[in-house]
Amino acid sequence: MTGLAIVLPGANYTPAGPAIRFPVLAAWEAGYQSSVAVEYPPGAMRTQDLPAVVAEVRRQLIGADFEEFDRMTVIAKSMGTRVVVEIADMLDRVEDLSIVWLTPLFGDRGIRDGAIGSGWRSLIVFGDQDPFHNEAGVTEVSQALQAPVVRVSGANHALESPGDVIATISGLREVTSAVQEFLAP
Question: What range defines the domain where residue 30 resides?
């Protein structure tokens, strides 16, 4: 079984950031043999130009041969959760698709509706000190998709516990374990 992980980072968070990097490593351990980390156009990120970001993501993924993989997982963080909803039409042709929603922007009705409407197998992860977290949105999406939820106590939008590196490591361990379980073959 071969898998592809597509990484959609946050606006100011790269695929090398631990909140994304550890889930990608968990995917590799689960047998995913390839990953694509999408890069956003810098100017579009500064101006929050979502159409330009989505167009660039589509351009980067257009040549991907999704059919060569038995399963695919999108690991999307923050802005990436907005993008994944916008490219749903590209992803819907994948039969075994799952999404790891890291610090999702479910306070936005369009993102919530897109997530729910997709029906994708999902894992939702958030920090309880994240100023962008929307509890009602997470509850609505998790219930609709019957998705497991990981609430990282004391963690912010980067899934870090400021001033407490050990708590940050513990939280990232919890996230990584949940992703391992979620992606287990």
Answer: 3-183
